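Researcher: Batch entry, complex prediction.
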Amino acid sequence: MDQASIDRAYARLSRHYDLLFERVFDGGRRRIFRALPDRPAARVLEVGVGTGLSLPLYPKTTRVVGIDYSGDMLRCASERIHLDRLPNVSLLRMDATNLVFPDGTFDAVIAAYVISATPHPERVIAEMWRVCRSGGRILFLNHFLSENTLLARVERGINRWTKPWGFRTDLELAGLLQQTGLRPDRIERVNLFGMWRLVVCTKRKAGSLTPATGSPPGT
Amino acid sequence: MPIDKDLLDILACPACRTPVTYEARDGEWLVCAACSRRYPIRDGIPVMLLEEAQTGAPKASP
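Model: Structure tokens for the complex:
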């Protein structure tokens, strides 16, 4: 998957995204907000904000910055901001592997259904970590390859059909964690049949992530 | 200024990481003083992408 084909896919999807995905993904999206720190986060970055389905769920006191690579998806998000009157939200077009914010800018950094829709998930996670403040929270919600051998085979099989739609179904969580050095506080199963996972991490100290040595499994 | 100051304060040039400034001349832009790249603001959304940046002197509107 390269960035240009992903961009084309989301340009096609932008008009139908809410109809296709709002209900299926809503449960997981709401769980993110339960996993945010008790004290409402002052400044949150949402990576891959898409059509902005989660934007109305933020407390109005939270300053939200939403970024996406797709201009078409952002136009939908912009309409939502106007219709729902969300003055606490700003939108920017940006590459998630090159975030233009200083280190430690945000209290929480969120990516919902993004990690498997990018050519370089490990680079996105490293950037999310960098712009999160020390003590802040990093949350990502995604489908990952099942640990069940039979299901995993099915998921690998359908991967070639989902890739033209801008996302993959064969991303392994264990491999990604090892590759990035990310150590989650907890992992919750969400959405239909618990096939999606919410990964909750706290950045305990400043500095970059240290990837584990050795090759990730399955590579 | 149509762009929020709090937001402008945390934005840097994706090429050289220098803070950018707002400019409304031949359209709206975020401009990097260090490398002279100009990032267009389209429909109120800043486009902070290297491939969409204009380099050198101002030309067309975004």
